[in-house]
Amino acid sequence: MENHQISPQGAAGVTIRKSMRSSKVEPVLFNTINAIFMIFLVVVTLYPFLNTIAVSLNAGNDTIRGGIYLWPRQWTLQNYKAVFASGTIYDAFWISVARTVLSTVLNIFLTTMLSYTLSRKEYVFRKPITVIFVLTMYFSAGLIPGYFLIKDLHLLNSFWVYIFPSMISAFNMIVIRTYIGTIPDSLVESAKIDGAGDFKIFLRIIFPLCTPVLATIALFVAVGAWNSWFDAFLYTSSRQELSTLQYELMKLLSSSMNSNSNPNVAAGVGVNQETAVSMVTPLSIRAAITIVASVPILVVYPFLQKYFVVGLNVGSVKE
């Protein structure tokens, strides 16, 4: 028998070839697994929204049977017709728009001004005032004292009840103050040497530099104001002209649930095909309401996305 021996140079060559093959396979394997994972993540993220669209475009009586995934079985616009059938929905839409815009603008401006004040080390009361604001995040007087406060301020049945309570946010103040802390103090000091006052420094330097975090906070405030309906139920329910879109949609959903409380009607027993297509159910009307309420936010979000990503990293890196 012949004894074949591999020289050290040959063994090194084999090792190099193996490492080269491994270096070529690893990126391909990683990219494949990463692509599969990202596709799965996109599908999981988009499926609930696409399913809601499909349900909203499907006949209400047919939706009860289930099995609606990404495509309606019986196409109909009756769910959306039911949502827009009331003339009050259009006035409520503009009330919600005005409320969202004013709340967002005032909250951003006033909260940023407060954050800048509490970020100044020369302000001797910044720590106790900050503690007071933080305490409001953990302790609340409750619903009844809050209602009496609104009443004593003469804000009941007034449009300003949507604006004044939301002008300052303790959480937003902390986030913005953290971001302001990353701005070099030399900018403020040089502006003061040039004779600029605090308000001018705030408007010309601090406010423009806070654009990423302000865009993030603006999105949070706008979504909260747009989706809010409970304050309309508490404070302005006696004035129809001050009703918000979300409150009107909530009332529509409640009335739909009451009108479809009959089990025979809900199951479609004794209902002809034409009536079945035109009938709405709580499930179908809820899907249509969800789409109607979310479309304005979906329209605004792409314009804030580039700032939103940057704003989420607030305070993550400090030099």
Automatic annotation (TrEMBL):
<feature type="transmembrane region" description="Helical">
    <location>
        <begin position="93"/>
        <end position="117"/>
    </location>
</feature>
<feature type="transmembrane region" description="Helical">
    <location>
        <begin position="201"/>
        <end position="226"/>
    </location>
</feature>
<feature type="transmembrane region" description="Helical">
    <location>
        <begin position="283"/>
        <end position="304"/>
    </location>
</feature>
<keyword id="KW-0472">Membrane</keyword>
<feature type="transmembrane region" description="Helical">
    <location>
        <begin position="162"/>
        <end position="180"/>
    </location>
</feature>
<keyword id="KW-1003">Cell membrane</keyword>
<protein>
    <submittedName>
        <fullName>Sugar ABC transporter permease</fullName>
    </submittedName>
</protein>
<keyword id="KW-0812">Transmembrane</keyword>
<comment type="similarity">
    <text>Belongs to the binding-protein-dependent transport system permease family.</text>
</comment>
<keyword id="KW-1133">Transmembrane helix</keyword>
<dbReference type="InterPro" id="IPR000515">
    <property type="entry name" value="MetI-like"/>
</dbReference>
<feature type="domain" description="ABC transmembrane type-1">
    <location>
        <begin position="93"/>
        <end position="304"/>
    </location>
</feature>
<feature type="transmembrane region" description="Helical">
    <location>
        <begin position="129"/>
        <end position="150"/>
    </location>
</feature>
<dbReference type="GO" id="GO:0055085">
    <property type="term" value="P:transmembrane transport"/>
</dbReference>
<dbReference type="InterPro" id="IPR035906">
    <property type="entry name" value="MetI-like_sf"/>
</dbReference>
<feature type="transmembrane region" description="Helical">
    <location>
        <begin position="28"/>
        <end position="50"/>
    </location>
</feature>
<dbReference type="Pfam" id="PF00528">
    <property type="entry name" value="BPD_transp_1"/>
</dbReference>
<dbReference type="GO" id="GO:0005886">
    <property type="term" value="C:plasma membrane"/>
</dbReference>
<keyword id="KW-0813">Transport</keyword>
